[in-house]
Amino acid sequence: MNQSKTSGAPAELGATSRNDAWWVEPALVATGFTLFIIYATWRALVDYQFQEWGPYLSPFFSPKITLPGWQWSPAILILWMPAGFRATCYYYRKAYYRAYFMDPPACAVGHFGGEKYCGETTFPLVLQNLHRYFLYLAIVVVGFLWWDAFSSLFYNGSFHLGLGSLVLFGNCIFLSFYTFGCHAFRHLVGGRLDCFSCTSGAKTQFKLWNIVTKLNEHHMLWAWVSLCSVGFADFYVRQLAAGVWTDIPFIGS
Amino acid sequence: MANYEVHEYDVLVVGAGGAGLRAAIEASSMGVTVGLVCKSLLGKAHTVMAEGGVAAALANVDEQDGWETHFCDTMNGGKMMNNWRMAQLHAQEAPDRVRELERWGAVFDRTKDGKILQRAFGGHKWKRLCHVGDRTGLEMIRTLQDRGVHQGITVYMECAITRLLKDGNKVSGAFGYFREDGRYVLFKAKAIVLATGGVGKSFPVTSNSWEYTGDGHALAYDAGAQLIDMEFVQFHPTGMVWPPGVRGILVTEGVRGEGGILRNSKGERFMFKYLPEATRNDYAETEEEAKIWVDAAIRGEKTQARRPPELSTRDNVARSIYLEVKAGRGSPHGGVFLDISYQDPDRVKKKLPSMYHQFKELADVDITQQPMEVGPTMHYIMGGVRVDADTAESQVPGLFAAGEVSGGMHGGNRLGGNSLSDLIVFGRRAGAGAAEYAKKHTAAPSIVDDQIKAAIDEMEAPFNRKDGKNPYELQRKMHEIMSTYVGIFREENDLKKGISLLEALKEEIKQVSISGTKTYNPGWHMCRDLRNMIICSEAIARSALSRTESRGAHSRLDYTETDPEQQKSNTAIFQDGDSMKLEKTPTPVMPEELKKLFVKKEPANA
Amino acid sequence: MREAVMKVFRGTDSGSGEFKTYKVPIEEGMVVLDAIHYIQGYLDPELAVRWNCKAAKCGSCSAEVNGHPALMCKSRMDHFPEGQEITVEPIKTFPLVKDLVTDVSWNYEVNKKIPAFKPSENADWTFMQEDIERVQEFRKCIECFLCQNVCHVLRDHDRKDVFYGPRFFVRMAGLEMHPLDTENRAGILKDQAGLGYCNITKCCTEVCPEEIHITDNAIIPLKERVVDEFYDPVAKLFKTIFGKKK
Ligand SMILES: Cc1cc2nc3c(=O)[nH]c(=O)nc-3n(C[C@H](O)[C@H](O)[C@H](O)COP(=O)(O)OP(=O)(O)OC[C@H]3O[C@@H](n4cnc5c(N)ncnc54)[C@H](O)[C@@H]3O)c2cc1C
Ligand code: SF4
Ligand code: SF4
Ligand code: FES
Ligand code: FES
Predict the structure, then answer these.
(1) What's the rounded Cα separation, in Å, for the pair A145 and A153?
(2) Cα-based angle B191, B197, B199 (whole degrees, multiple of 5)
(3) Do residue C64 and residue C129 come from a single domain?
(4) C74 to chain B: which residues are within 8 Å by CB?
(5) Do the Cβ atoms of B242 and C29 come within 8 Å?
(6) Class of B4-232+382-440 per CATH?
């Protein structure tokens, strides 16, 4: 018995007997990511003069950090945190291993390159294991964004509600659904336990775990929705700041 | 003579279902060497398909339960044809065996206070079936499989035994072939445990898989053991009837245990009118009462209401469905309707997940919305190798049998859930019996070359015959005979006709041929399996002809009554020279203290 | 009568095997395994196929239908466009025996290496349904090995030397999360079992006929447990101070 022989696996990229359009999904994902990355990089490094307008602060530039002597875009100081969070997120890993690394591009379809496959066991990919530290940072960032959204309700000493606030709140909600549906979070709040009913502490954790599990079941959805919402929130503020769009006020001015 | 490889063990277990695995675990823990052989891959035996549960009087849900009641239910269900000692041991030991499974890692569904949950099943007075949703058999086989693997038992997968070898009157080994490449193999063994399961493939509509060609029955018969109670073939009342490809696939009794309702095409809940007089009082009288029982069961509460009529014994429900269909009140595809859709869909999906998927995917029926169509399907054989109750040894020294292949435990009709418990109770006993035997008989088993040569010749023959019969065609013929003449309802002329046709078919089988190589050649395997199937078919037909009454699963159109006299003897089949002989042997008589159990406390229980 | 055209792989060597075409009459509700049985029973008795239950319960009949890893007894013929050929091939990751049958014994060897269930000595054996719900999901596995087949670590990279595969992560998750188990398998998961080779691309989950959320509920939680033990200095420190749970 020859145990290490693969009995005819497709060797080259894309080889498969599948006759459906398996390439559509990776193609869409790759397009989506690429567009976002281009936009975010442009905003962070080139177009960063439009950071806030009236009561609204773009999520790309929150919190406002002033470092003495820092003469580059403040987004650089911030964006590495959510970027690291998403880059090490279990869902995004799946998505870009498929769409960019094409290892594998789709199920039962031949992969791209690489003689010796090491997965996430060696540097740099072994660092994916630090995802939970990015989670801690991401929770802080989301906290600031909630703060921004609430602050936008109070402008010049009086209550104010405009479309911008709704955009910011919407973004916070989606980002929270994404962040608190994180697999690492699910583990930390309760998943690491073996017995959910053994102590009263465990029972509380079980309840939390159940809530996180509900969010986690749609983690992919929240990953995309929050990616779009954060991009849109930034774009909205940018357009206001650049004077292209005008905000729609509902209460106050 | 062709080459063959040789292995030697103290105990050889043939069959890796629940019974075989449990036997192997027991024997190996007693310090003898154990080999385990199975026809398919490990973990794929029939046991994996068992759904509803394993019966054991743990009294976790209904605390009135106890081994005595379980014993009485089993005997009543078996129409007193059971070997009482087996039924007693079974009822007494099942709870410990189930708890032991849990200690080995099985994860049963729980009651609210964290104990093993039990559900109702036909013929069981109390809620008694420990279960895991509707995949209890999977849980059981995986637990035993992993336990066995960690005990270091050697497993020979996809290896079929074709002959038992004897040294004088006692067994000394087994001969077989590997399905993968057709190489032959000889196992020398001091003791052999048969745990090969049943005979369903003799019938066209069955819940059984290709493995159930009655190999163990035939091996024991060839080796000189007796087969008892072969007329008792259980037709499960609820098999799928549509689409054609899945005809016969089981719909677990758990559906009825959870409150499933049977109706005919007129919408009548017909089971009320088919309850046998003797047990009518154990069942609800009205739909309202049945509903109260179901509602209470769902909430996990106690009630005075009695259980629904659908929970009558299998033989009775199967016959009732058959009669309803015959009377023209059947469903579009020749069954009746089984309905659970009145319950909360989420609960149905949780309690019966594989039924939900099975119907959704194979029949486009959503059982949470629509009724299922069901009809009787050949399911289980109560008859089998006659064994000693305590040691599971057959009349051939060194040959043991446990599980479906053994006879006596279930008498005239098996209760649902009593098979899985049978496997672990008597699997363990057979393993222990075989290990004891092997320890006592220290001399190395000796093998007679002639027997090996005969076994090899038999396997080679189909390749050497040119232009013989196609094995699949012969199997279709046998199916035709069995379904026409030896079905649910039997009659003297039919049975006689069936037997003569089987006799003729036996001759044709000698002409079977196959081409190609020995590498995984299913046609070749079928050539050999045919012989076993026909032995079992003939044994069933002859036994059925000899029992001139209706009792349990055996229903005669020409003798519709139960005859108390015939309770007194079992039917035994054995080989005499080249022909099949039949003999009536006395049914073991229960001691007085057990008889007392039936008189006052326990109302008779159909 | 309507007919389906079946293109079935025939051969004993993946290099020199070939597809043979058979015409099979279609019955309502027919599955691919029925078609294969028809071929066996009427056209070609030698066609090798593994099956047992025909009800998606035993996990014997794994194959690739039109390139999709699937159970043949669960693949309805009417799900394929009428008139189009249906290809049936053996699974790819294990050595071919013949036609649709492969040698999956490697999986059984792997299974032996997993440390057995080890309940705590003084357990009283009561535990609640919510404690075992996760474990019961894993124990639904019917060992069809379709996940092992599709996993690119085994299928494309052939890393059977360092990687146990999704089926056995499911099994280990079932043991690790059992409320009474006391064994710690994190070290084995990280080293011998090669959990880190999984890049969570989820093909295993996509093909699992039992709909076990292999990646989300078994592999990722196990990865997190490995992180606790080996990659997270803070968790490690916490554990050393407040004592080990297991
Ligand atoms: C669909 C279905 C549902 C069921 N549900 C229930 C239930 O809910 N509760 C219950 O109690 N019972 C149930 N039963 C009945 C019960 O599952 C079986 O009776 C029981 O599993 C038989 O177990 P066994 O160990 O005797 O044989 P099996 O589990 O069938 O094992 C037989 C073994 O013998 C091997 N074998 C056979 N012939 C040979 C040979 N010639 N050489 C080598 N090996 C051989 C096979 O490969 C296999 O490993 C159900 C049965 C079916 C079909
Ligand atoms: S998720 Fe991991 S285990 Fe599953 S198929 Fe992908 S790489 Fe393999
Ligand atoms: S986990 Fe799912 S796909 Fe994998 S072997 Fe088990 S049932 Fe099959
Ligand atoms: S897994 Fe996606 S955010 Fe943590
Ligand atoms: S035959 Fe059992 S899963 Fe298909």
Answers:
(1) 13
(2) 125
(3) no
(4) 361-362
(5) yes
(6) alpha beta
Q: Nearest Cα to B345, choosing from B370, B313, B312?
A: B370
Cα-to-chain-centroid distance, residue B323 = 24
Based on the domain organization, do C218 and C129 belong to the same domain? yes
Tell me phi and psi for residue B26, to 5 degrees. -65, -50
Q: Looking at the partner chain, which of C34, C103, C129 has a beta carbon nearest the beta carbon of B109?
A: C129
- B339-354 tens-digit pLDDT: 999 999 999 998 898 8
Length of chain C, in residues: 246
* Residues in chain C closer than 8 A to A17 (CB atoms): 64, 66-67, 87, 89
Query: Is C128 found in the same domain as C15?
Result: no
CA C160 to chain centre: 15
Q: How far is the CA of C64 from the centre of ligand 2 (A)?
A: 18
Q: Is the pLDDT of residue A253 over 80?
A: no
Given the candidates 1.10.1670.10, 3.40.190.10, 1.20.58.100, 3.30.300.20, the CATH classification of the domain at B453-565 is 1.20.58.100
Say whether B299 is catalytic.
Answer: no
What's residue B600's pLDDT? 56
Please give the helix or strand (H or E) that residue B342 lies within, else none. none
Q: Using the Cα atoms of residue A167, residue A172, residue A177 and residue A178 in order, give the sign of their dihedral.
A: positive
Whole-number pLDDT of residue B174: 98
Round to whole Å and give the CA distance between B54 and B83.
20
Which of the other chains make 3 or more beta carbon contacts under 8 angstroms with chain C?
A, B
Question: Atom 14, ligand 1: which residue's CA is nearest?
Answer: B50
In angstroms, the CA B274 to CA B284 distance is 13
pLDDT, tens only, A225-244? 999 999 999 999 999 999 99
Give the pLDDT confidence of C99-130 residue by residue, as tens digits. Answer: 999 999 999 999 999 999 999 998 999 999 99
Residues of chain B with pLDDT under 50: 601-606
C231 and A130: CB-CB below 8 Å? yes
